[in-house]
Design goal:
The protein has 6 helices and 5 strands. A 5-stranded parallel sheet has the order 3-2-1-4-5. Helix 3 (39-52) runs antiparallel to helix 4 (57-70) and helix 5 (80-89) crosses helix 6. The protein has a domain at 2-75 and 104-119. It has 133 residues and is α/β, with parallel strands linked by helices.
């Protein structure tokens, strides 16, 4: 099982994104693997597409269909407490990690998911998780 980070899905979905071609290459390599996201990723993807990138609703619909067709969506609410504990480990001025990423780390560790497709390099320092980039 491979976990997909929000930035991977955005890069794969938005053709003008700086990491689009790399995301497409990665997708070809992992296409036949089981892939998952969490509900937090689902929410983040559409917040970024709508608010930050101001993409049209057609792209959001296309991405939603892609997610529902190709990915397993994991419920993540039971990992929020663990994520707060992890966040405190990363709570240094130069090494802060977003709460959502802490949720992903907690979920991945609990479920034994060892790989994450992401362009965030702070995952490099997480023991037991391999970053696909």
């Amino acid at each position: 099982m491979i976990f997909l980070d929000t930035n991977f899905i955005i890069a794969y979905s938005v053709k003008r994104h700086d990491n689009n071609s790399r995301a497409e290459e990665i997708w070809k390599d992992i296409e036949n693997e089981d892939k998952a996201i969490s509900k937090v990723v689902f929410v983040e993807v559409f917040n970024v597409l709508n608010v930050q990138l101001k993409e049209n609703i057609e792209l959001s619909n296309k991405v939603r269909d892609f997610i529902l067709d190709k990915l397993l969506i994991l419920n993540d609410h039971k990992y929020h407490d663990k994520a707060f504990k992890l966040m405190s480990e990363f709570y240094h001025d130069s090494k802060r990690v977003q709460f959502a990423d802490c949720v992903y780390i907690a979920l991945m560790k609990e479920l034994g998911i060892k790989q994450i497709a992401t362009f965030d390099n702070h995952f490099n320092s997480v023991e037991g998780i391999e970053r696909i980039h």
